[in-house]
Amino acid sequence: MKKVILSAALTGTAGSKSQTPDIPISPEEIAADAVAVAKAGASMVHIHVHDEEGRPTMQTEYFRAAFEAVKEATEKAGVDVIVNLTTSGGSNDSFLRQEHLRQLRPEVCSYDAGTFNWALGGVFENSPNFLVELGKTTQQYDIKPEIEIFDAGMLSNAIAYTGYNVLKAPCHFQFVLGVVGAMDGTVENLEYLHRRLPAGSTWSVTGIGKAHLPMLLTGLALGCDGLRVGLEDNLYLSKGVKGTNVQLVERAAAIARLAGREPATADEARQMLGITRHALAEYQG
């Protein structure tokens, strides 16, 4: 049976020490967690960044600090992990949301394929113009877009964009279910999205909050290529019991093995997703 890519979403835009002291905020904390989850079976880490006050930011200098800290720490520890940098984290500035990609050239970046009202948090905006620009940036710098799907219309958008040469097939889709204002994290919703995937696609799934474990189990039952876990999406191992990024990865790895799916190494994940491994020199521009 094919292996499964475990992706650890280490810290999101809303993550804070007031929620849990184990959420990594500083570059050093992010790097330490990246090493730890890689040892636990993760082949990819998804990263947001914060400024000195703990506020989410898209400023390139903060991405550079976290990115270089992860690269240095993983190399020193002798582990390999794919770094996936977000393109959404506290700004609607189209240029700023892509500048860190141009400068750092990660192997993977997020690509949120549409706009929706995020409960009371405001509009999660990803305009067509921005998505066209971002698609061109990923192709220019050979970055694999992880196409994040929060709602069914986003999948329709992404499929259409492949026809416009904004995105290159085969695509990799990351279903993010359970956000208030988008699709609920239910078996029926994931099964519906799975049926609509274009042939040859790869896909991963995560559930927000209480949907975390149900989506993990459903994803395995449907033959997913990847599972995303981590404190960005869920703070708990069980009701009232907070977890860590490492514990969430360890649990996902154990469940995957019970399902006959061994976690993929970073190089195996690159092969599954069609990712070109970037030489170290490319990261230092």
Describe what this molecule looks like in 3D.
The protein is an alpha/beta fold and 285 residues long. The protein is built from 9 helices and 14 strands. It has helices at residues 27-40, 60-77, 96-104, 128-140, 152-163, 187-195, 212-221, 245-258, 266-273, and strands at residues 5-11, 44-47, 49-50, 56-57, 82-85, 108-112, 116-117, 123-124, 144-149, 172-177, 202-207, 226-229, 236-238, 241-242. Strand 3 (49-50) and strand 4 form a beta hairpin. Helix 1 packs parallel to helix 8 (245-258) and helix 2 (60-77) packs parallel to helix 3 (96-104). The longest helix has 18 residues, at 60-77. The radius of gyration is 17 Å and the shape is globular. The chain starts with a strand and ends in a 12-residue tail after the last helix.
Secondary structure: number of strands: 14
Query: In percent, how much strand structure appears in the residues?
Result: 15-25%
What percent of the residues sit in helical stretches (DSSP H or I)? Answer: 25-40%
Name the average pLDDT: 95
Sum up the overall morphology in one term. Answer: globular
Distance between the termini: 40 Å
Order of helices and strands: EHEEEHEHEEEHEHEHEHEEEHH
Across the major sheet, the strand order is 1-2-5-6-9-10-11-12
Biggest β-sheet, characterized? 8 strands, parallel, barrel
Q: Identify low-pLDDT runs.
A: none
Rg on CA atoms, Å: 17 Å
Query: What structural category do the secondary elements indicate?
Result: alpha/beta
- How would you classify the quaternary structure? single chain
